[in-house]
Amino acid sequence: MTQRIAILSGKGGTGKSLLTCGIGEALAREGKTVLLVDGSQGLRSLELFLGMTEGILYSCPDLAAGSCSPEDVLIEDDVHPGLWLLPAAQNLASDQDLAENYEKALQMIQEGGTDIPEFDFILTDCGGSLESQLALASLSERPVLAVTPDPAGLRAADKLRKLTSKEPEMILNRFDSRDLAQQILPPLSEIQEMLPLKILGVFEENDGLRRAVLTGSDILQEMPEFTNTARRILGQDAALPLLPGNSGRTADAIPPEVSGRRRTFWNRLFRKGQK
Ligand SMILES: Nc1ncnc2c1ncn2[C@@H]1O[C@H](COP(=O)(O)OP(=O)(O)OP(=O)(O)O)[C@@H](O)[C@H]1O
Ligand SMILES: [Mg+2]
After folding, report:
1. Ligand 1 in reach of 42 Cβ (< 6 A)
2. 244: nearest Cα among 184, 157, 170
3. How many CA atoms lie within 13 A of 52 on its CB side?
4. Of 45, 174, 201, 248, whose CA is between 20 and 30 Å from 7?
5. Ligand 1 contact, 210 CB (< 6 A)
């Protein structure tokens, strides 16, 4: 049976597209057949992250409109067997069209075609506005929040978890270990207290990963940690990476060298609803 996973964040630049590709590659490496759906209508990017340089002729709305077949529109990754892409259109569509086209296209794909496999996972990179991200996520069984550990990122995630139709899981991305080591960022345990969601992965800010995206090279090879995230998605046990400062410090223990303003700031963020 196909499982649909939607990666969303509300906020831009949290790594949704990168995480979608890395997890898709890792699931394919685990032997699963995976369809990546680019949900950023008007601003597609997944083919670039995957290093696909061949021209894209058709997109999700073309399939939904019946202008092409699943075989015409789906592209198989030649580096990761079992990984396929449904590209987004480059022209703008309304939020309502986006969700309708997506559902129609996925139904046509799941009804199959001669050369189309039965997918174990459909992984959607939910781009665009908060509304369009929520609309796409509502069509998946498993919403996953891509969360950056900065105040705006954490607040966006806290808001989104109340807006998704199902309890989401989360991936923490773009941790800077220097910020953790200097206790500028709260440790993972405190972030987990504020956002009590299942963690599927923790990724540091990584220069190799950034360069892999710039050059269209293999994301999974650059960041093997994606394999552990894929295994957690598959329900297997895989330890989370150890990060500096990731041990039981409480919010009150923020050291004096962290300014009073910042201390109050994190305390307020963590003790939501209290004066
Ligand atoms: N862990 C990381 N280490 C280094 N660079 C990263 C990391 N995560 C994301 N990036 C970089 O940050 C940029 C934004 O990532 P990405 O495009 O995946 O975010 P997004 O959430 O999809 O953005 P948008 O909301 O614009 O669609 C990219 O250049 C990507 O390579
Ligand atoms: Mg994106």
Report:
1. no
2. 184
3. 22
4. 248
5. yes
**Number of the ligand 1 atom closest to the C-alpha atom of 18:** 18
Give the start-end residues of each E strand in the chain: 3-8, 34-38, 75-76, 83-86, 121-125, 142-147, 169-175, 199-204
> Residue 78 and residue 218: Cα distance in Å, rounded?
11
Determine the Cα–Cα distance for residues 85 and 53; give it in Å rounded to an integer: 13
> pTM to 2 decimals?
0.90
15 lines ligand 1 (CB under 6 A): yes
DSSP state of 143: E
The alpha carbon of 255 and the centre of ligand 1 are apart by a number of angstroms equal to 31
Instruction: Report residue 77 as tokens.
Output: 């990754």
CA distance 26 to 244: 25
Between CA 237 and CA 229 the distance in angstroms is 10
Quickly state the pLDDT bin for 36 (edges 50, 70, 90): very high
180: CA distance to ligand 2 center in Å?
A: 26
Which atom of ligand 1 has the smallest separation from the CA of 175? 1
**Token pair 């345990």 in the structure block, residue:** 189
pLDDT digits (tens, 9 = 90+) for 84-113: 999 998 877 666 688 889 999 999 998 876
Domain 3-270: top CATH class: alpha beta
**Contact by Cβ (8 Å): 127, 43:** yes
Q: How far is Cα 82 from Cα 60, in angstroms, rounded to an integer?
A: 19
Which residue is closest in CA terms to ligand 1's atom 15? 15
Q: Who surrounds ion ligand 2 at CB < 5 A? A: 16-17, 127
Q: Report how far residue 116's alpha carbon sits from residue 243's, in angstroms, rounded to the nearest whole number.
A: 41
Pocket of ligand 1 contains residue 228 by CB under 6 Å:
no
